[in-house]
TrEMBL record:
Keywords noted in UniProt: Methyltransferase, Transferase
Residue ranges of domain Methyltransferase type in the record: 54-148
InterPro entries named among the record's database cross-references: Methyltransf_11, SAM-dependent_MTases_sf, Thiol_S-MT
Protein name per the record: Class I SAM-dependent methyltransferase
Organism: Nocardia fusca
Record field: transmembrane: none
Origin: domain of life: Bacteria
Any one GO MF annotation of this record: methyltransferase activity
Signal peptide: none
One biological process term in Gene Ontology: methylation
Keyword Protein biosynthesis in annotation: no
Amino acid sequence: MSSGAVPAAAVEGSGLWARVFAALYDPLLWWGERSGMADRRRDLLGRARGRTVELGSGTGLNLRYYPDGLDELTLTEPEAAMRTRLARRLGRGSDRARVVDASAERLPFADQTVDTVVSTLVLCTVADPDPVLREIERVLRSRGQLLFLEHVRAESPRLARWQDRLAGPWRRFAEGCHCNRATLELIRGRGLELAEVREASWRRMPPIVRPLIMGVATKAVSD
């Protein structure tokens, strides 16, 4: 269409697949979680402190790994089907966390009011990581931290070529996920200092999403 409008059938189809994908999400990740991913979540999220905001919380797989005693835990999720499952996992009447309908590109928090931002398998999925990283910088206090766990572009040239070949079909299947995104380089290019980075492999998952990075980036002290 010349106006750039999306046909109604395409919108309905996208909404249907979003609901199906949300229903399949936990089963699809089950083997990967049991083969090491759950331990990585536990290790990473145990470092959360103060006022904590999680980006793209999905169905809430991280929820059980947050430490007690956080000042506040906010779970953001823009996709309605995922948000429904997230609220269900949290439980009715729970005061452990609150669920907010918000995208990672536009966080509903004032400047420098957050101690910890968490991103697990999110920077691969957003259309453009730059606005997200700018938002992270904006909301973090001085010495605030970004805890990240992301799958990334492979260092192996052969696997990277396969990631490039399959990027389109995978993005359609996995609701926007970019299997060939060089996320670590994007974080390095922002005003965040990498305090720790570890490489790992997401076992029992398709090879194009197996290369992982996890670590901590901190915001510099404001003048």
